[in-house]
């Protein structure tokens, strides 16, 4: 073995020694002027998986290098050594303290991962769902298409179904309600009542006494209770660290407020019915689970919020927590057919032709934020997408001071002179009238606080801006031409670009995380949601940039001359 080969071997060991996060592994020490390499190895019995194979490779390489060094030293011509070897060449086991520290770190990591995995959504058991389907087929209150079957814990079609064909029908008597009326209440209140009713049906709390004037509600079928999801995917069930992964303060606050509302309702109800205090902790966990399931399944039917057995077991659109399942798109819808006498038949109808093996996915009228908070899925951003974002003015001066003074929602930053502008954006909103311009579209997509801030930052005189009423800001922005338009758009571009700084990861980071094999569960939902928000915001920023680039090309010609915008304008 030549001296060059030996040096390359030493460089390889130095480059690959140790493991990440400071864990004990292979350590190499080099003495100047001598051929000396000392290695400390973790025994293979203390590591596992890929790390184990890596350590075994390093150990084998170290031993091979040790004997090669010895042979090379014996065969080479004698020469002076500037520094004698002070320690023997060889392999040393890690100390007991290093091994203990390494094992402690691994145990902590495993405990954190296990705790996070415990919150992973779990759908209904395939057998329980099949029993629910069989029960519905045998029940006279249901009509089920013969092609509907259970596959991979979801309802799919086993044969082609043409567009606009009924798939499942429910008589009004098959709907499940809470004991108390859910009229004139929002969906959260209804879900709370339905969740409590589920605890009653499962025998976890006492059934309330029925007054002589009241009608006893029908019991919920056990087949339905057993087919409910074992753990839902809504953020209210997530650990706080996973809620933080959403990287959006407004969403995090909504999750917190919803959690406080649910817990307060639960406390009040338990107090009113006299629940044993020793059972509160376990019962609270079961109640929150039931609430999340009801929130994702309740539908407004016959003037009340209700659950529809079998139909509400059908999936909803979006990206789920399961990385092995592609994002779903709706292929069926709910319809109500009048039966006379104030009774209505609930039907699930195909929205397009369904091919064999296609899972049933029902339409849901909800925004992207509602889909996450209420259903636990992530859909692509659309025209309904709204975001509360913050823009940062790092350059202090009279104009920045004017922004803080004149713009609603503007706040001082951490450093003296810095200003934070908080406002609403609707990245995919467009001007709904006829003959609109690109400026009309931007005015529809960007909140007044940002529009006014950009007008102030680009204005030569603030007198005209200060005189504007809030409802006049959009029209003034749209009317800009020439250099004023270009300068305003440049300032708006800076403002919107600074909003991306609110996110602690980039789009590239999120894409890489979603591709990782470990991307699953609630963390996958959090990453997918924030990725969609960033993509929407980035697209809006690109549109502002294009408008700024083209502002100078129009040479300040008014709209009356330019006419209706073209596709490229």
UniProtKB/TrEMBL annotation:
Pfam families: Rubis-subs-bind (PF09273). Residues 475-537 form the Rubisco LSMT substrate-binding domain. This is Rubisco LSMT substrate-binding domain-containing protein. It comes from Symbiodinium natans. The lineage of its organism: Eukaryota, Sar, Alveolata, Dinophyceae, Suessiales.
């Amino acid at each position: 073995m030549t001296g060059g080969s030996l040096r390359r071997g030493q460089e390889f060991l130095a480059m690959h020694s140790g493991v990440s996060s400071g864990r004990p592994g292979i350590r190499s020490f080099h003495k100047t002027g001598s051929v000396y390499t000392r290695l400390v190895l973790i025994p293979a019995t203390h590591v596992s998986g890929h790390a184990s194979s890596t350590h075994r490779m390093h150990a084998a390489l170290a031993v091979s290098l040790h004997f090669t060094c010895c042979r090379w030293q014996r065969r080479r011509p004698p020469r002076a050594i500037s520094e004698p070897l002070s320690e023997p060449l060889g392999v040393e086991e890690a100390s007991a303290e290093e091994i203990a520290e390494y094992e402690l770190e691994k145990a902590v990591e495993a405990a954190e991962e296990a705790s996070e995995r415990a919150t992973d959504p779990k759908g209904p058991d395939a057998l329980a769902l099949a029993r629910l389907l069989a029960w519905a087929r045998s029940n006279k209150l249901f009509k089920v298409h013969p092609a509907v079957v259970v596959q991979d814990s979801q309802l799919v079609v086993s044969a082609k179904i043409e567009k606009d064909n009924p798939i499942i029908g429910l008589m009004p008597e098959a709907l499940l309600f809470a004991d108390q009326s859910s009229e004139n209440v929002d969906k959260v209140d209804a879900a709370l009542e339905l969740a409590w009713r589920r605890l009653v049906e499962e025998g976890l709390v006492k059934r309330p006494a029925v007054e002589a004037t009241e009608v006893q509600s029908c019991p919920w079928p056990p087949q339905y209770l057993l087919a409910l999801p074992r753990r839902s995917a809504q953020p209210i069930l997530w650990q706080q660290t996973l809620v933080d992964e959403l990287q959006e303060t407004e969403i995090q606050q909504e999750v917190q407020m919803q959690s406080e509302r649910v817990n307060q309702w639960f406390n009040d109800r338990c107090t009113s019915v006299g629940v044993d205090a020793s059972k509160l902790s376990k019962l609270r966990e079961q109640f929150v689970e039931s609430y999340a399931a009801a929130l994702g399944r309740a539908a407004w039917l016959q003037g009340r919020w209700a659950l529809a057995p079998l139909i509400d077991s059908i999936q909803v659109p979006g990206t789920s927590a399961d990385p092995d399942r592609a994002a779903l798109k709706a292929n069926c819808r709910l319809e109500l057919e009048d039966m006379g006498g104030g009774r209505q038949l609930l039907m699930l109808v195909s929205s397009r032709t369904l091919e064999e093996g296609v899972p049933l996915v029902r339409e849901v009228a909800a925004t992207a934020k509602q889909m996450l908070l209420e259903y636990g899925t992530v859909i692509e951003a659309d025209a309904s997408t709204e975001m509360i974002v913050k823009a940062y003015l790092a350059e202090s001066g009279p104009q920045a001071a004017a922004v803080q003074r004149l713009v609603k929602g503007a706040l001082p930053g951490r450093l003296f002179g810095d200003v934070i502008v908080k406002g609403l954006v609707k990245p995919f909103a467009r001007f709904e009238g006829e003959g609109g311009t690109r400026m009309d579209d931007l005015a529809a997509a960007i909140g007044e606080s940002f529009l006014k801030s950009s007008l102030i930052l680009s204005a030569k005189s603030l007198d005209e801006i200060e005189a504007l009423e809030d409802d006049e800001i959009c029209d003034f922005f749209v009317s800009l031409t020439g250099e004023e338009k270009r300068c305003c758009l440049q300032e708006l571009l800076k403002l919107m670009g600074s909003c991306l700084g609110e996110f602690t990861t980039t789009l590239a980071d999120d894409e890489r995380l979603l591709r990782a094999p470990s991307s699953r569960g609630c963390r996958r939902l959090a990453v997918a949601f924030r990725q969609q928000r960033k993509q929407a915001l980035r697209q809006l920023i690109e549109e502002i940039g294009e408008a700024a680039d083209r502002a100078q090309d129009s040479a300040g010609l008014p709209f009356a001359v330019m006419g209706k915008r073209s596709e490229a304008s």
